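Researcher: We're teaching a course module on how sequence relates to structure. For the next exercise, students receive a sequence and then see the predicted structure as tokens, so they can try to spot secondary structure elements on their own. Here is the exercise chain.
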Amino acid sequence: MIELQDVTVRYPNGVDALRGVSVRVDPGEFVFVVGPTGSGKSTFLKLLYREVRPFSGLVSVAGRNVAAIREGQIPHFRRHIGVVFQDYRLIPHKTAYENVAFALQVTGASGRTIKERVPDILHMVGLSSKARCFPEQLSGGEQQRVSIARALVNAPPLLVADEPTGNLDPGTSQDIFQLLNAIHREGTTVVIATHDASTVNRMQKRVLSFEDGQILRDDHVGRYDLDQDMFFRALETAPAGLF
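Model: And here is the predicted structure for the students to work with:
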């Protein structure tokens, strides 16, 4: 599903956001991406949906070399990836139904398909009764559920979420993660960047811990363990022979 081989991302100012990252995510996995602000988490996710391109190395998503995708091909490529953002990015003058339907309209879906899929996906995220509400009439958690519904309506095999609960209270955050876990159980590959240590530790999924543009730790059943990450960082930076 996802493979990075010795990937470096260098921004125009010369800063390397990622440095020599290699990792593989198999179909059907649920992966948390953790680490401090500026560690490379968001850049890693942006590579997956072709928001940024690698400076060097190979990025493969669903069998496609992401760097080789031309600008005009990006919308078609992204139909196979659902993306959820911290700030929801809903269209304010469209209802919940219309926001989700828009994701189908841009792919050329028929009116019949839209009428079939949108109610089903709103039901899945628990928003059937809110279909005619505008974003300003919804709570933060409800807006994020619309965002998730929009990401899923094209039935993508991969769902990428960047801090999906960053603006939500703990109770609502837990509901969103339970929803994402339910989506994963249906077979979708899920990759989530988060600072929510309590949820990461409770759910016990695979954890990629980033630090300074590199993967510091990759645990297939892991925790967001800052003490452990400090130990790994010490190993990386210690003089030879100290440990």
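Model: If you want an answer key for the exercise: Residues 166 and 196 are 8 Å apart (CA to CA). The two ends are 36 Å apart (CA to CA).
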